[in-house]
Known about the structure:
alpha+beta; GMP Synthetase, Chain A, domain 3; five-stranded antiparallel β-sheet; 14 helices; 33% helix; 20% strand
Amino acid sequence: MSCGSCGSKDGKTSGCGSGGSCSSGGCNRNNVFDWFSFMPTSSFENFNIIEVSFKKGARKGFYRNVNNLDLYKGQLVVVEAAQGYDVGEVNLQGELVRAQMKKRRITERDDTIRNIMRLATEEDIDIFLDGRNKENDTMVRARAIARSMNLEMKIGDIEFQGDGKKLTVYYIADGRVDFRELVKVYVRDFKAKIEMRQIGARQEAGRIGGIGTCGRELCCSTWLQDFKSVTTQAVRYQNLSINTEKMSGQCGRLKCCLNYELDTYNDALKKLPKNAEKIETAGGTAYLRKNEILKKLMWYSLESTPGVFYKLDIETVQQLLWMNKQGEKPEALGTFTVAEEKTVDESKHEDLVGHVSLSSLEEKDRRNRQGNRNRNQGNRPQQQNKSSQQQNSPKEGEQKTQQNNQPRKNPNQKFINKNQPNRGPKDKPNEQN
């Protein structure tokens, strides 16, 4: 029961009828496929621990199937809680649950694993849905109360327990918050037991959900459960420019996907030659400008010609460094390049990383201002143009009128060109006239 649009009958979820794609976007957190569900393995029957998810997959837990219930994925069950009971959805069972427990370092004999009480009845489902429907209004009211008490905290999400007797408030705060008076007001207004739970920015983004820059749902809201720290070293190792807007995710922190290929880049960086920032040549000193880590290529440019770049492979760079140690200097880097050298115009310089330099941005801004000024002058009345031409010298006035009339075309030019029979390439009229 991942979203409110799914129906139920006889204690079984009938689904929203969307053909596998949830129309409300709330079922995507539970996209876990059991690859062993159709394999007749005896270990399935012996392993009686089930993974149950709550609140659209934002919270999951392991429970024992002590009553040997015939369960399937997506079925609602009633499980034990610290006080009362809770209603959750069967998310995973079989050998994959054993692998998940091993990943989280939970043993089968752990006393903290609670039991599955029974299948959810119609009454349990009604109470469960009633709590889900009240969560949005309750969260708005909870935020207003916390704001009125001037508490430095942000309430990100709330969750009602399956029996409706407990309310868990998830909040974000930079430091410690004294919410004792706040809890008293919550108990009086919401008529439930209150549990305040502090979470981080990544956990909040996982609970809220969203779409990333890749066009897919956030990893933290679909499958990612363990959040590892992401530092700027991961950006530097991958030779990426440190741009906070592009490198930050929905949570305002560095994207978790920066760690996905970090090990691959670290292995590739070990193969690059060390102390290769400059190479001495007969034409001058060549400085390292960029590394293509995965392609094992290095870009150099001479100090005398900074606009020309030479692409060398790592074997060639090692050979040139060895020649410098022997006191030898190569005549030119062009003989060692794996491809033709790349020339970049300094007036429109764009670095190899792909970000335009500051000088080019200033030049573009100046051209835009000059273009706007010229367009404004062209839209002025004719009287102002005549007065301005009288103030200027005759040569300057003739030059401006010639420039204004140059882009205009003769209206009779097309008619004249059409009447010229058998015109060859040499008979084309001069466009400058």
